[in-house]
Specification:
The complex is a heterodimer. Chain A has helices spanning 2-18, 37-41, 43-48, 107-116, 146-168, 173-189; strands at 21-25, 30-34, 55-65, 68-82, 87-93, 99-104, 119-123, 134-142, 196-207. Chain A is an alpha+beta fold. In chain A, strands 6-5-4-3-8-9-1-2-7 form a 9-stranded mixed sheet. The radius of gyration of chain A is 22 Å and the shape is globular. Helices cover 66% and strands 12% of the residues of chain B. A 5-stranded mixed sheet of chain B has the order 2-4-5-7-6. The longest helix of chain B has 62 residues, at 150-211. Chain B starts with a helix and ends in a 9-residue tail after the last strand. The chains are: A alpha+beta, B alpha+beta. The complex binds adenosine-5'-triphosphate and magnesium ion (MG).
């Protein structure tokens, strides 16, 4: 019910305000996603942007033609605030694994880059030629990276073992096993999960180079 | 085993475990976790990072010390932030683990509770059975209840009591048999010594008579006396033999009333002076050995006839069915039983026939025959107006024709 109300009342606004665009570059045949500006302003994102952890956006696109999936691909954008140098370190990983590193000096720079950036999600050679197609776009946001998860897990496990052995001496498995349960609970509970997810279905456009 | 006896401790256990889980979870674990990812700690770490940076610019040439320290703090802060993000997940996992432990404790606890109660129940009923067996006369019982607890001790006590009872009973039986034998031998020797002494006296008289010149008629009378005494001895030994040889009854379905009627015809010719009164309810079928039943009736009727002095008096024979039993009453109008005989009536060699040939076996034999038929022989009543013996035999349903 709520979802329906939301769809009827808010969707037109959202669509007008922050509808991304998916464009096939007629020269390279690469499908680019643009205008994801709304994502960066979402409270889930702004809250975490300066955490020092790696904020990851995963952009997944699947192109449908006459209701059948024709192609799919994804790109990833990692943004991390580096306090020491006071820069945003941005990595854009394209569908083909090509990584672009960027350093952006301020939040404004980041915002303006984000609003104009085009993220290459798949190679869509030939897609544009055959008339109208729609793209289902899913963008998720995860506030930390896999390696940070692993570091945290290691840290928890090690600290558990340290306290365990400090309390009971090095050769007492009992103390270690008791903390091992807690460690296991904590360590296995730390997983990467999207805290924000947005979906759009947009027309696949054909555009000029760039 | 009552449900409430099992449920009550389980409910208490669940409550205790729940309280424990809630306390541990809410008051301890959650508190520790909050402490670990306290916003204050995090902001302090952040400030400390900024401080390292400031220190680095303020004192150049520190060989990257502050940078390293900064990185170190950064790593810790990152870990804390990741933890902070996973907070709800960790908490719910932790709760799940605690709940699983709770469930395990409850299941294990209630299982042991139920099993324990079932075991106690089994042990109790074993003891109950043993006590029942003991009260029913069981001896040398084995009670399958081990253990050193109260029940185990009770079981051992029941066992030793049953052994004691067994030993006492054997002693008692031995004593009784011995007493009976003593009684019997006393009676037999008394019985035998009478005719033997008489015969010896007659023999020595005969000796004298034959040595002198007396009347040959006297010698003949003497010899005849000896013959009579020897005849009595002969009859006694035969009745001993009869008791010893008393056969197992060969049971066939028969009409008891018919047998009694036939007996009456034979008996009335043997005791013509008696008045016989019959009251027969037909049919009264039972599994009987006709010969033995007639033997039994003869013994009872003989006693009655002798008690009434052979002439006059009424002998009543009645047959009826009473539920599961066919009942045969043998009643006389004699003087009743001597008081000292009543208690030991069916024991062998109990006789009050002073002058005579009574061996005191008649009623013992009759009793034995009745028991062998699955029935019983009882003294129904005795008084100066007469005596009634009642024989009961298991009745055979009318429609069953076992021949
Ligand atoms: N109907 C009766 N009336 C009175 N006294 C009886 C009667 N039946 C039995 N008695 C007494 O009970 C005693 C035991 O009887 P039982 O038939 O066992 O032995 P008995 O008649 O003395 O000897 P036996 O039957 O061996 O020849 C008798 O001696 C007699 O004193
Ligand atoms: Mg008799």
């Amino acid at each position: 019910m709520k979802a329906a109300v939301f769809a009827v009342v808010l969707m037109p606004l959202v669509v007008q305000a922050a509808e991304p665009r998916v464009v096939v570059d007629s020269a390279t045949g690469v499908v680019m996603v643009r205008h994801l500006a709304g994502m960066l302003d979402a409270p889930e994102v702004t809250r975490n942007l300066d955490s020092g952890l790696t904020n990851g956006f995963v952009i997944q696109a699947s192109v449908h033609r006459e209701r059948e999936a024709a192609a799919r691909g994804a790109a990833r954008v990692d943004i991390r605030w580096e306090l020491w140098d006071e820069v945003y370190l941005v990595d854009v990983v394209a569908f083909d694994g090509h990584v672009t590193h960027l350093k952006l000096a301020s939040k404004d720079d980041l915002a303006s880059w984000w609003s104009s950036a085009a993220f290459p999600v798949l190679s869509g050679r030939g897609l544009a030629a055959e008339g109208s197609a729609v793209v289902k776009l899913v963008v998720t946001f995860v506030p930390f990276s896999q390696s940070e998860v692993e570091a945290a897990r290691r840290w928890v496990t090690q600290s558990g073992e340290e306290t365990g052995s400090a309390r009971n001496g090095p050769n007492q498995p009992e103390g270690r096993s008791s903390s091992a349960v807690v460690n296991l609970v904590v360590a296995t509970s730390i997983v990467r999960r999207a805290i924000l997810r947005r979906e759009w279905t947009v027309k696949l456009e054909t555009g000029g180079g760039g | 085993m009552s449900i409430t006896r099992v449920l009550a401790p389980v409910i208490v256990m669940v409550l205790a475990a729940t309280i424990l889980v809630v306390v541990v979870e809410r008051e301890l674990s959650a508190a520790w976790f909050r402490l670990g990812v306290q916003p204050q700690v995090m902001s302090l770490l952040e400030k400390s990072m900024a401080d390292q940076k400031r220190l680095d610019t303020a004192s150049p040439g520190n060989d990257g010390l502050y940078r390293r320290r900064y990185e170190e703090i950064h790593r810790v802060l990152n870990n804390l932030r990741v933890l902070e993000h996973s907070r709800s997940r960790i908490v719910s996992r932790y709760q799940a683990v605690l709940l699983a432990v709770l469930g395990l404790v409850v299941v294990a606890g209630s299982t042991t509770q139920v099993l324990g109660q079932a075991r106690e129940h089994r042990r109790l009923s074993s003891i109950q059975d043993a006590l029942q067996a003991l009260s029913g006369g069981g001896v040398d019982l084995e009670v399958p209840v081990r253990g050193r607890d109260g029940l185990g001790r009770v079981a051992r006590m029941v066992e030793s009591t049953s052994r004691l009872v067994g030993r006492q009973r054997k002693r008692l039986e031995a004593m009784r048999t011995l007493e009976q034998w003593q009684d019997t031998t006393r009676r037999i020797s008394h019985q035998l010594s009478g005719p033997l002494n008489a015969a010896r006296l007659e023999l020595s008289r005969l000796h004298e008579l034959l040595g002198g010149t007396s009347d040959p008629g006297d010698a003949l009378a003497c010899a005849s006396n000896i013959d009579t005494q020897l005849d009595r001895l002969g009859r006694w030994t035969r009745s001993f033999a009869r008791l010893g040889r008393l056969p197992e009854p060969r049971l066939v379905a028969d009409d008891v009333a018919g047998i009694v009627q036939h007996f009456e015809e034979v008996f009335s010719s043997a005791w013509p002076g008696l008045h016989l009164a019959m009251d027969l309810a037909r049919p009264a079928r039972a599994m009987v050995d006709r010969d033995l039943l007639e033997h039994l009736l003869t013994n009872l009727a003989d006693n009655a006839a002798r008690a009434m002095g052979g002439a006059g008096g009424t002998l009543g024979l009645a047959v009826s069915t009473e539920g599961q039993w066919v009942r045969v009453d043998v009643a006389d109008s004699g003087p009743g039983l001597p008081a000292d005989v009543v208690d030991r009536l069916f024991q062998p060699y109990v006789s009050r026939k002073e002058r005579s040939d009574g061996m005191g076996l008649g009623l013992a034999i009759a009793h034995k025959i009745a028991l062998d038929h699955g029935g019983d022989l009882r003294l129904f009543e005795t008084s100066e107006q007469g005596t009634t013996f009642s024989l009961v035999l298991p009745v055979l349903p009318c429609n069953s024709e076992v021949e």
